[in-house]
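[audit] Reproducing an earlier prediction to check determinism. Same input, same settings, fresh worker. If the tokens differ from the archived copy the diff job will pick it up downstream; this log only records the rerun itself.
[audit] input (140 residues):
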Amino acid sequence: MEQIRQPKPRPPVTRKPSTKRLARQIANYVIEKKAYDVLIMDLRKLTSMTDFFVLCSADSGIQVKAIVDNVEEKMKKRRIRAWHREGYQNLKWVLLDYVDVVVHVFHKDTREFYSLESLWGDAKTEAIPDDEDSPLEKSP
């Protein structure tokens, strides 16, 4: 009598989040550490190098480090690691490259100097309100 082989069970399908959703989630991660002037730039129609930039500002190197560390920690929990990280030693402008989403964490003076918003002026942008900008009142 011939045995019939049963197919191996397939692993559960985990959907990769859309790049826009990932950019918004990263924006929330930077806000958790009090980043401000958070901006998502949609570059999909302008370049093939990445889909989105997430830009944010911080007042000090310590805050830049806290923001970057938080993003990396939260992304690692989601099993997503940065393909490249640059600027962590100086903490003036740290870049985290997640391929489809590139995160730019700036010291406020450095952001003004390089003005990526102007360089990529044709990109669609979405300003993400931080807690202080939120129109909803918080309950005590």
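[audit] rerun output stored. Observation attached for the diff report: Strands lie at 36-42, 52-58, 84-86, 93-97, 101-107, 124-128.
[audit] end
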